[in-house]
Amino acid sequence: MDMAIVVNDLRKSYKSKEAVKGVSFRVARGEIFGIVGPNGAGKTTTLEILEGLRERSAGEVSVLGFDPKKDGRSLRQRIGIQFQSTSIQERLKVSEALDLFASFYERKGDRAALIETLGLGQYMNSQFSKLSGGWKQRLTLALAALHAPDILFLDEPSTGLDPQARRDIWALIQQFRTQGMTVVLTTHYMEEAERLCDRVAMFREGAIAALDTPKRLVSQFAAPKCLTFTSAEADLSVISALPSVERAHRDGDAVWVYAPDLQEISRHLFAVAHERHWTMEAFRFEVGSLDDLFVNLSLEGETA
């Protein structure tokens, strides 16, 4: 598989603090790769090293075949970067911002198509200060993608946006991938990582705590923990005595049952419900998510 990014044993230290501790991963061309983790986990530092904006202390990094430390100028002609907050002069018009940023790059992308894709046509004469948060994000995304980069780096691309604007940004990111771009993004939104990313690296205290597809991460680390159903007749003392039940509780008619093997406990539950004439409705497994994994890894880091 053709790799856009190769990172081996990456380290970054500041005096006595090691911010990135031996991180290794690869990103394939055309992949959407997510980097998630709590504040201070090393996400942004890693991203800035890949972009050539910060020097590493040790390790090997190759981005599109370039070493960001040695070939930063050449590399930045081939990548696009959307920062958490991009400083744009408040009175600068959208068209003027596009002109300015286009002048930074030798490669010229299809500007008209980009404007149409992002829906910016109606705002070309609008000043940056007059744009809503969602449209400011669209503009900074356009500025990052203006030169048709091979890799698009996005640092918290939908922070501060309302739910609809966030989904609009997600759709645009997916469009960029269909156009052949590789996308590397950091995010605090686990739903964003699950929706967008082919693979996710979960950072904790400067190291990668887990790396895989969202589905495999959830299956391996945040598997279903309980089942739930509604029943007025169900007896908690009977349920708690069933084989392998760790605990059970109820809130009104809603019942939660925790067990290591949910398939097995389901069989016992239906048998006892039939025997005792309980009615059970809305029966389902509570499926884990990347949110659960994120919280679990964060708590492990706090107690380590």
Topology:
Blueprint lengths: L2 E12 L2 E12 L3 E5 L6 H8 L7 E6 L8 H5 L2 E4 L11 H9 L8 H8 L14 H13 L5 E5 L7 H16 L3 E6 L2 H7 L2 E6 L2 E6 L1 H8 L4 E5 L5 H5 L6 E5 L2 E5 L3 H15 L4 E6 L3 H14 L1
Summarize the structure in short.
The chain has 304 residues and is of the alpha/beta class. It is built from 11 helices and 13 strands.
Q: What report would you give on this structure?
A:
It contains 11 helices and 13 strands. By secondary structure, it is of the alpha/beta class. The chain has 2 domains: 218 residues, Rossmann fold (3-Layer(aba) Sandwich), CATH 3.40.50; 63 residues, Alpha-Beta Plaits (2-Layer Sandwich), CATH 3.30.70. The protein has a 6-stranded mixed β-sheet, with helices on both faces. A 4-stranded antiparallel β-sheet has the order 11-12-10-13. It has a 3-stranded antiparallel β-sheet with strand order 2-1-4, with helices on one face. The two termini are 37 Å apart. The model has no long low-confidence stretch (mean pLDDT 90).
